[in-house]
Amino acid sequence: MERPRRLPLLFPDGNPDPESAVIGPGGVKVLITAAVFAVIAAAIHLYIFVLESLRWTAPATMAVFRISTPQEAAYTQGLAYNQGFYNLFLAVGAMLGVVLLGAGSRVAGLTLMSFAAASMVLAALVLVFSNRRMIRPALIQGGPALVCLAFTLLGA
User: Which residue windows are coiled coil (predicted)?
Assistant: First the structure.
């Protein structure tokens, strides 16, 4: 039986194991930078989870989200609670990617980091497209994730 041919572009070192594939042109420093920005993005999304799911009716949170009355906060609390958990899950995905990357599971770690970061960036774009005045919150939400994604792609 003939062995399948290896694709030199996918496996430049001749080893088909993706965990042993050559790290991209930026090297390990690029992947560390990506991981740092993944942690920053995760921390931001964890903070947003706390605001949306745990502190939605607090006056300070209402001010952050420009909610003018307690009635408005009460009316939107269920939606915010649900949305907060989306942010929590994105944060967990990004952090799990960093942990896997640090543990040596490069492919799984980069995949999770990339997926979480791309989801965060896309959510930030949706925020801007839904309300052009939300550019600042979108930059806070999506900026570190975009940097993470860029460095992840450079280092992969």
Answer: none
Residue 83 lies in a domain: yes
Q: What is the pLDDT of residues 82-101, one digit of tens each?
A: 999 999 999 999 999 999 99
pLDDT tens for 34-61 read 999 999 999 999 999 999 999 999 999 9
Residue 116 · residue 43 · CB < 8 Å: no
How many Cβ atoms from other residues are within 10 Å of residue 148's Cβ? 30
| Total tally of structural domains belonging to the chain | 1
C-alpha dihedral sign at 104, 106, 110, 111: negative
Domain extent for 61: 24-155
CA distance 110 to 41: 15
Q: Which pair of tokens denotes residue 64?
A: 């952050």
* Spacing of C-alpha 121 from chain mean position: 7
Say if pTM beats, i.e. exceeds, 0.90: no
